[in-house]
Amino acid sequence: MATIYYTATSLDGFIADEHNSLDWLFQFGELEPNTFDAFLEGVGAIAMGSTTYQWIYDHDFGTEVDDPKPWPYRTPTWVFTSRQLPIIAEADVRFVSGDVRPIHKDMASAAGDKNLWIVGGGDLAGQFYDCGLLDELVVSVASVTLDGGAPLFPRRIDPPLKLLSAKPYGHDFVELHYSVPGQ
Ligand SMILES: NC(=O)c1ccc[n+]([C@@H]2O[C@H](COP(=O)([O-])OP(=O)(O)OC[C@H]3O[C@@H](n4cnc5c(N)ncnc54)[C@H](OP(=O)(O)O)[C@@H]3O)[C@@H](O)[C@H]2O)c1
């Protein structure tokens, strides 16, 4: 079981633009071959911050959504927030706040021998890293820059990560897989 920050980023290190838009990413359509479905199969618990949850809510469930979609995950999901967020009826979501360590324990016991996925944002992944709880990063780097937005990983990484693989996907992405030393 590993705790993995799996995300897509711009070349200059942003996972959303300054308006929290992912249009820069969706312009590429489905990644082929798609590593995400196989990754998700191995995930037993998910964590995300409130901006990310609110993005899913606004795009898939909010009152202005013409064509609501089902909650995308069958896996239990922990959403970090200090606020009251809208609830999505069919989603197995637990709202939590504060220290990530006890939440990580709860996630690990729910996941069994499956992996924990830290969806983002970058600071939340950093909170797991700060506590020595982040094992791997899988980052798909898109061939665009954003010049601002939500940071990929607002931390100083030292000692360096260990590069496990670097795979190109078409002309637009390279997927970088790192392990965190000492984990
Ligand atoms: N490119 C990709 O593949 C990808 C992947 C994931 C996300 N995204 C996008 O990237 C953006 C990320 O937004 P973001 O940087 O703001 O990160 P975020 O982690 O989604 O949200 C940050 C917020 O979560 C809450 N939070 C975080 N840690 C907490 C803790 N320990 N206890 C309580 N609350 C906590 C705080 O808000 P409150 O306490 O005020 O609620 C904080 O401001 C979103 O637009 C998302 O859609 C992109």
Automatic annotation (TrEMBL):
Residues 75-173 form the Bacterial bifunctional deaminase-reductase C-terminal domain. One of its GO terms (biological process) is riboflavin biosynthetic process. This is Dihydrofolate reductase. One of its GO terms (molecular function) is 5-amino-6-(5-phosphoribosylamino)uracil reductase activity. InterPro entries: DHFR-like_dom_sf, RibDG_C, Riboflavin_Biosynth_HTPR. Transmembrane segments: none annotated. It comes from the Bacteria. It holds the Pfam family RibD_C. Gene3D superfamilies: Dihydrofolate Reductase, subunit A. PANTHER family: 2,5-DIAMINO-6-RIBOSYLAMINO-4(3H)-PYRIMIDINONE 5'-PHOSPHATE REDUCTASE, DIHYDROFOLATE REDUCTASE FAMILY PROTEIN (AFU_ORTHOLOGUE AFUA_8G06820).
